[in-house]
Design brief:
The chain has helices spanning 2-8, 10-15, 32-43, 134-142, 154-163, 165-176, 221-225, 232-242, 309-326, and strands spanning 56-65, 82-90, 105-112, 118-124, 179-180, 188-189, 194-197, 203-212, 218-219, 245-253, 273-284, 303-305. It is an alpha+beta fold. The chain folds into 2 domains: 1-30 and 127-176, no CATH class; 58-126 and 180-326, Beta Barrel (Catalase HpII,  Chain A, domain 1). Strands 1, 2, 3, 4, 6, 7, 8, 10, 11 and 12 form a 10-stranded antiparallel β-sheet that branches. Strand 3 (105-112) and strand 4 (118-124) form a beta hairpin. Helix 3 runs parallel beside helix 4 (134-142) and helix 3 packs across helix 9. The radius of gyration is 20 Å and the shape is globular. The protein starts with a helix and ends with a helix.
Length: 329
């Protein structure tokens, strides 16, 4: 909970004119191993678990495509209904995280095509990333590390946020975040920019988000305190028994001036959106997601990732975490 408490002080920090010291992102190029290591330092060592989003649940379902002119010819939308594996999660490396805590919730979704290829969507419930590049993100995480006495320094975190504007939108989101009532009542943002390359040579620039059919619902602090420490799986299961749990995958269409390399910048809300399809959850997935690597750069034919440095860093980071998990490290 202490990182949440730090985040709750962020709004005040952004209003302070001066801070004890400046804290800019490091000039050192951050490697994937650096990110995996720092997540483990922050969340503790938990062999056999993911180094980020360690606590979660799996579900299975069906993707029903919504063909449209912007993604004409995409195999993802031209092969009828497709099987889906989904993993919902909490942020952080601790598999015993308190589900009553506000903050990050994640989703990994992998759709299997008849060819045997996969299309992966990986997102979070916040609309902007905490940093324009891996160096800034790593610098921010570094301020959350405890010292040799096991104490963290909120002033250090606040100074870093003030000195690095690309962290501020995410920090402000965290400051106001509430506890999601259910994974089925949570919206997810892909954060990064992707392209679809049509046969005509035209390229469709887009970012995706996922909208729950049951609507976004959160719990106030007092409501969350009345919940058991573990409630998300039971809540989700009950919602499945009561009726359909589904999500619509939407693509926001970018314009030339919209950044395709900075996930800390949110595109304007007025950008047009088109539906890629609907995912209907059919059952809890048990251990079906245990050995799945939800790498967002794993996409079906015609889709390509942007040059976003955070997106590019995800593949090696996920691969290292995946290898450690399989070898029980």
């Amino acid at each position: 909970m202490k990182h949440t408490l730090i985040a709750s002080s962020i709004a005040a920090c952004l209003l302070i004119a001066t801070v004890p010291f400046s804290a800019m992102a490091s000039d050192k190029e951050v490697q994937a191993t650096d990110l995996v290591d720092i997540f483990e330092k922050l969340g503790g060592s938990h062999p056999g678990f993911r180094k980020a989003h360690a606590r979660g649940m799996c579900a299975i379902g069906t993707f029903v495509p919504s063909p449209n002119e912007y993604f004409r010819g995409a195999a993802l939308l031209a092969n009828g209904d497709l099987p889906v594996a989904m993993r919902f999660s909490l942020g952080g490396a601790n598999p015993n995280s308190d589900e009553r805590a506000p903050g990050t919730r994640g989703l990994g979704m992998q759709i299997k095509l008849p060819s045997g290829s996969f299309h992966t969507f990986t997102g979070n419930n916040f609309p902007v990333f905490a940093g324009k590049d891996p160096e800034t993100f790593f610098g921010f995480l570094s301020t959350l590390l405890p010292d040799e006495n096991g104490k963290t320094d909120p002033a250090k975190t606040m100074a870093f946020i003030q000195a690095n504007p690309s962290v501020q939108a995410n920090a402000m989101w965290n400051q106001g975040a509430k506890t999601p009532a259910s994974f089925a009542n949570t919206g997810f943002f892909g954060l990064h920019t992707f392209y679809f390359n049509q046969a005509s040579g035209e390229k469709t620039k887009f970012r995706w988000d996922i909208q729950p059919s049951l609507g976004v619902k959160t719990l106030d602090k007092d409501e969350a305190a009345e919940m058991p420490e573990e409630f998300l799986v039971d809540t989700f299961t009950k919602q499945l028994e009561e009726g359909a749990v589904s999500f619509t995958i939407m693509a926001s269409l970018g314009e030339e001036q919209d950044s395709d390399i900075d996930p800390s910048q949110q595109w304007p809300n007025e950008r047009p959106q088109v539906a890629l399809g609907t995912v209907t959850v059919t059952a809890n997935g048990g251990d079906a997601c245990k050995n799945t690597n939800f790498d967002p750069n794993m996409m079906s034919s015609g889709f390509t990732p942007s040059a976003d440095p955070v997106l590019r860093m995800r593949s090696p980071s996920y691969a290292i975490s995946f290898g450690k998990r399989l070898s029980n490290q």
